[in-house]
Design goal:
It is built from 3 helices and 6 strands, in the order H-E-E-E-E-H-E-E-H. It is an alpha+beta fold. Strand 5 and strand 6 form a beta hairpin. It is globular and about 35 Å long.
């Protein structure tokens, strides 16, 4: 099973690799990372928003990165999984 620190590092690489040139710089929202149902749920947002927490700077529709700790698989969450990060359980 993957450790949370390893999973977070994997998620950071995934985010960097998926970043498009036309997007603002993105970063992991470390304050809101949590584990639920064997997944590490890794929210992210714009660097500008994370520095200020000003809602006017927040990106909309940022599905979190999900890291399966058992399978060591990383991907973006999808609409069907929204319940995982809206009301996470441990």
């Amino acid at each position: 099973m993957m450790e949370q620190d390893e999973a977070l590092h994997l998620a950071a690489g995934f985010l960097a690799h998926s970043q498009r040139d036309d997007e603002p710089p993105l970063a992991i929202d470390a304050e809101r990372v949590r584990e639920s149902n064997g997944l590490l749920i890794v929210p992210y947002n714009s660097v500008q928003y994370l520095a200020s927490r000003d809602a006017r700077e927040q990106l909309l529709d940022c599905w979190p990165i999900l890291v399966d700790l058992a399978l060591e698989d990383v991907r973006f969450g999808n609409l069907d999984e929204r319940y995982l990060w809206r009301r996470p359980s441990t």
